[in-house]
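Running log. JK asked me to keep both predictions on one page so they can be read side by side. First protein, sequence followed by its tokens:
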Amino acid sequence: MSTPLGNDDDRSGPAPDDTPTGQVPVIPPAPATFVPVTERVTSTANTPTPGTGRHAAEEPAGERGSLSIEDVVVEKVAVAAAGEIDGVGGAARRVLGVSAGSNDGDGRPRATARVSGETAVLEVRLTVAYPASVRATTEAVRAHVRDRVEALTDLTVTRVDISIAALTAGKVSKGRVIA
């Protein structure tokens, strides 16, 4: 006689007449079979294929593209670097060669930059706190601005021209320091 589970010969669960009314017979899982691994897995689905996409062999830097640093970026680095020197203050903005504000040392120095290839020429306008030595202060600013611009932009600074807008009375507060 045949049962809902198949032939009587390959029954693997309780007989249908042994199950209470309204319940479905439970069929135990088939025994697990062991398949020995004979080869080693060396890649996964997420491993990139060598030589494709962003994992391709790197080309020399000159062949990957170019980098251009705008004048305004160099100007901002120069302004920040000049402001790191003690006794240096800001200069008033100029409109048509005339100061538009006060040269009281508050604020930040001004700078303009001209970048050509891998070289930069800078012009910095600032105030110096009296009685500091103008020569010593400008030499310190020139060296520090050159070092910071070259370190941060990898440009060669060929010249740093400094204009002293005014000597200010008292000590000028030190500006922000870039670490």
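And the second, directly underneath as requested:
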Amino acid sequence: MPEIWDELQAIYRRKRAQHVLFALERGPRRYTDIQTDVTMATGKALHSHTLSDTLKWLQEHDYIEHHQYDDNADYRLTTNGQDLVRILGEINRMYRRRRTRDD
């Protein structure tokens, strides 16, 4: 059981990782689209270096994959990434319900 908590903590510590995952929940996205989506969602500019590092980390942990085509490329969730997005979404919903109830 500790492994899943370690993994969730790593996701939350990794700058903008969960925002990138949620951006990809809608389907394959190009690098610039992810950058725009995350910037809009957070209200803070997502720097290229941060996004590149986050995408690389998510790929290394088998949450996303990069597809390169002749004139284009995109990122998409793996099966593990889809499962993780569902789990993170439920945690976020549970937190919002609790926070609303406690206010």
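Observation for JK regarding the second prediction: The longest strand covers residues 64-68.
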